[in-house]
Amino acid sequence: MADYDYDVLVIGAGPGGYVAAIRAAQLGLRTACAESRETLGGTCLNVGCIPSKALLHASEIYEEAKGGHLTKFGIDFQGVTLNLDQMHAEKAKAVKELTGGVEFLFKKNKVTWLKGKAAFQDAHTVDVAGQKVTAKNIVIATGSSVMPLPGVTVDQKTVVDSTGALEIPKVPEHMVVIGGGVIGLELGSVWRRLGAKVTVVEFVDQILPGFDGEVRRETAKLFKKQGMELKLSTKVTGVTVADGVATVTVEPAAGGASETLTADAVLVSIGRKANVDGLNLEAIGLELNKRGQIETDHSFRTKVDGVWAIGDCIPGLMLAHKAEDEGVAVAENIAGQTGIVNEDVIPSVVYTMPEIAGVGLTEEAARDKTEIKVGKFPFAANSRAKTNRDTDGFVKIIADAKTDRVLGVWIVSSLAGTLIAEAAIAMEFGATSEDIAYTCHAHPTHAEAIKEAAMAVQGKPIHI
Ligand code: FAD
Ligand code: NAI
Fold first, then answer.
1. Pocket of ligand 1, candidates 22, 37, 44: which has the most ligand atoms within 8 Å of its Cβ, to mutate?
2. Is pTM beyond 0.90 here?
3. What's the confidence (pLDDT) of residue 109?
4. Whose CA is nearest to atom 33 of ligand 2?
């Protein structure tokens, strides 16, 4: 039997890779993780989930104080000012603490961090910064990076991608966001709250691809009410920059007269693509699918024996918690256990205000598949939301008309990201809407809206 340096070598230390490495080590496997960044944690901790949520949180508090939204509660602020440098500094502190936390966990679990970019030499050998490393199993967890827009140059000054948008040193006067997806709406919200005029240019006729149709329509109204301009069914045909001023040329997606928008910041957020360049996959004969991703089976095995793949570089939702769950599963599979991820029950959350969350099927997809019943409950009828003056949004539950099994849950609410966990658990256990309707929920809580939406599926909500 070949003598390998490690039982498991993970390439990439994002939420997928670092979790896979830790679980592999917990299972007694000799584990290393190659990461080319200066810090561990991948996109999510360094330039994704964590810094964006830090700015979303801080900008929300700023808007509440500055905009006088707290006056109705008897809390008056005068002379509220923005110290953007401090806001960035606090964000950087959170990132440092969390990436350092992963480094601590690597040490605690005896995972070796190989610093540098990994490239395959064969299916059991990689080169990391000039060092040859062998492993019985290699997990590709290289994640994803920003999808470029042809003809638009990101200079990270006037034209930024999500990484640049987290570091803008001065609040722009006018930010044009190209792409009304998750990144565009989250980071557009940050800069709007801090004082920028924000125009979102979206190619299709709705924001938020992949979300339930009603949720997409209703949240578009809320974003407009907040002052965001949404230019739907519109495409960007070019961006030029002179002296820090961008001229963005747009035209109807279906063709027609073009117009120009002038902006001092442009955010390109049209999606992400798998990181596979430089891995030398040719050396192991691993081909990519049409979307440039690595295909695996449900155990996360690729077509090449001993090579596995997880996270953003494989098909499916590009989400940190999906990558993490796949990290646990792949390590357990390598150790001979049965690691499974139910790809049908992965919640998605947009951390705007209100938050937008969903799990399972959209109403459209469910209707295409089978006969359904839908129950809805607005937060305007939820006592806690009313008390908190926080009534935007609703809960919508989609259930199979014959079996009553819950197929999808969609929530728009200040607490949607937290509330959706209840729906995910219910669906994971195969709950019916009746199960949720007859589960006692604490009063007064936003969660009661989930129970009432389930009662509405049954045709018997109490409070509406
Ligand atoms: P990544 O986190 O991308 O990590 C891959 C790592 O591999 C990187 O550190 C990279 O340097 C390294 N690497 C790549 N190639 C090599 C190589 N050859 N050798 C060595 N190392 C290599 N998701 C959520 O669930 N919630 C959120 O709130 C959220 N917010 C986001 C906000 C932004 C602005 C962005 C951009 C993304 C956000 N995401 C969010 C998505 C989330 O960041 C990703 O889904 C997640 O990071 C994917 O994890 P991963 O481990 O697959 O890859
Ligand atoms: P996205 O796929 O969510 O949205 C991209 C949008 O750009 C789509 O609506 C698309 O129609 C539009 N678009 C594409 N080409 C265009 C063009 N030429 N002109 C105008 N619009 C165009 O991608 P996004 O926002 O870049 O985010 C990437 C991924 O990162 C997300 O899909 C998600 O997986 C992850 N992410 C998750 C977060 C979360 O969980 N809260 C936060 C941020 C990112």
1. 44
2. yes
3. 98
4. 318
CA–CA dist 21, 256 (Å, integer): 52
Q: What is the pLDDT of residues 1-55, one digit of tens each?
A: 569 999 999 999 999 999 999 999 999 999 999 999 999 999 999 999 999 999 9
Looking at 166-272, list the stretches that DSSP marks H as alpha helix, in order from N- to C-terminal side: 182-193, 213-225
d(CA 50, CA 14): 12
Residue 123's nearest CA partner among 281, 334, 289 is 281
* β pairing state of 118-122 and 112-115: unpaired
Q: First and final CA of the chain: distance in angstroms?
A: 68
Rounded (10°) CA dihedral 130, 132, 137, 138: 10
> What single letter denotes the amino acid at residue 342?
N
Please provide the average confidence, as pLDDT, over all residues in the chain: 97
Q: How far does the centroid of ligand 2 lie from the alpha carbon of residue 207, in Å?
A: 9
Distances (CA, A) of 331 to 94, 309, 311, 320: 28, 11, 13, 17
At 166, list the tokens.
């987290």
pLDDT tens digits, 217-271: 999 999 999 999 999 999 999 999 999 999 999 999 999 999 999 999 999 999 9
Ligand 1 pocket, residues with Cβ under 6 angstroms: 11-17, 34-37, 42-44, 48-49, 52-53, 117-118, 141-144, 162, 183, 275, 278-279, 311-312, 318-321, 323, 351
Burial of 205 (0-12, 13-18, 19+ CB in 10 A): exposed
Statement: residue 355 has pLDDT above 90:
yes
Residue whose tokens read 């937008």: 356
| Residues linked to residue 370 through DSSP beta bridges, in sequence order | none
Q: Who's near 214: CB < 8 A, 6+ residues apart?
A: 363, 396, 410
